[in-house]
Amino acid sequence: MMRKYTDEELIARGLSPDMPKHVAIIMDGNGRWAKERGMIRTLGHRAGIERMREIIRHSSDIGVEALSLYAFSTENWKRPKFEVAALSALFLEYFTKEIDELHANNVRMIALGDTTKFSPEIHNAILRGAEKTKHNTGLKLNVALNYGSRDEITTAVKSIACDVKNGTLDDDDINYELISDRLYTKGLPDIDLLIRPGGERRLSNFLLMQAAYAELVFTDDYWPDFTNEKYEEAIKEFQKRTRRYGGLK
Ligand code: IPE
Ligand code: IPE
Ligand code: MG
Q1: Which of 18, 44, 150, 229 is most buried when burial is the number of CB atoms within 10 A of its CB?
Q2: What residues does ligand 1 touch, defined as CB less than 6 Å away?
Q3: pLDDT(65) > 80
Q4: pTM of whole model > 0.85?
Q5: How many Å separate Cα 7 from the centre of its chain?
C-alpha cells in the first residue's frame, strides 16, 4: 500500500482509519453537468476523467484497498454514435497517457468487462496497462468498461455449465465462492461501499452480486463535482453505519 496519511491524520480529517476495503463508484452525471454549463456532453465526460484521476489518487492516499469505477456499461452502446465515439476517444487517451502515472503510484489496474468490443487500439492499451501494473502492490483499480452484471453472471454460468458438461466439475461443488472466482472481480473483496453521484437512486447493472451487502451512498452532485471532500463525506457516512449481514449486533 502507498497510504499517504497516518492514522492520526485520518482522524484529524474526521475519518476512522478503518477504511472500506473495496469502494465502487458509478461515475454518473457528466452530461447534465455539461448541459448546465451550456457545454456539449463530451466536455462533461472530459471533466469526469479529471475527477476520476483525483479520486484514484485520493483512494491511494487514504488507504482504500480496491476501487471499482463504472466508466461504460453494456447498455451505454445504445447512446448516439457520436457520444460513444467521443467516450472511446477519451478512453484511448486515458489508457495511453495515464498508465505511467498509475504505475509510478504503485496502482494495479485491470478492466472489468469485455473490452474486445472497443477498438483494438483501446483493447490493447488496456491490456498493456494491466500487464505493466500487474505486480504493483498499491491500490487495486478496476475500471468497468463494457461492463454489466447480467453479462458477467451469464458468462460465469456458461463457463460453469461447460465444466459440468465436460465432467471437470461436479454440480455439488458449485457454491458462491466458485461463482465469485469466475467474475471479473475474482480475488477481490466484496464491495463495502457503493457510491452513486449524479442524483439517480439505482444500480444500473453494476456489481449486483459483489454489492449484495454493500452500504449504498447516493449524492446529488454530478460526477465532475464529486470532490475529494465529498468522497470523504461518503466514507464518513459509511463509517457511521452498522453492518449486520442479517445477524444481530
Ligand atoms: C456518466 O455520465 C458517464 C457514462 C455513462 C459514460 P452520463 O453520460 O450518464 O451523464 P448524465 O447522467 O447523462 O448526466
Ligand atoms: C451508469 O450510468 C453507467 C455509468 C456511469 C458508466 P447511466 O447514466 O448509463 O445509467 P442510467 O441510464 O441512468 O441507469
Ligand atoms: Mg447517466
Answers
A1: 44
A2: 27-32, 72, 76, 87, 198
A3: yes
A4: yes
A5: 25
Burial of 182 (0-12, 13-18, 19+ CB in 10 A): middle
Catalytic status, residue 170: no
Reading the block at residue 57, the C-alpha cell is: 489518487
Q: Which three cell numbers stand for residue 127?
A: 491490456
Residue 84 above 60 pLDDT? Answer: yes
How much distance in Å is there from the Cα of 246 to the middle of ligand 1?
34
Residue 101 — very low, low, confident or very high, per pLDDT cuts 50/70/90?
very high
Q: Which atom of ligand 2 is nearest to the CA of 29?
A: 8
> Do 153 and 81 meet the contact criterion of CB atoms below 8 Å apart?
no
Helix (H, G, I), strand (E, B) or coil at 87: helix
Closest ligand, as measured to the CA of 44: 1
CATH number for 18-148+190-239: choose from 3.40.50.720, 3.40.1180.10, 3.40.50.740, 3.40.50.410: 3.40.1180.10
61, 76, 105, 151: the active-site residue: 76
Q: pLDDT confidence of 1, banded at 50, 70, 90?
A: low
Q: Where exactly are the structural domains of the chain?
A: 18-148+190-239
Give the containing element (helix H, strand E) for 80: none
Task: Give catalytic status of residue 76 as yes or no.
Answer: yes
Top mutation candidate among 25, 26, 27, 30 for ligand 1, by most atoms within 8 Å of CB:
30
Rounded distance between C-alpha atoms, residue 113 and residue 132, angstroms: 19
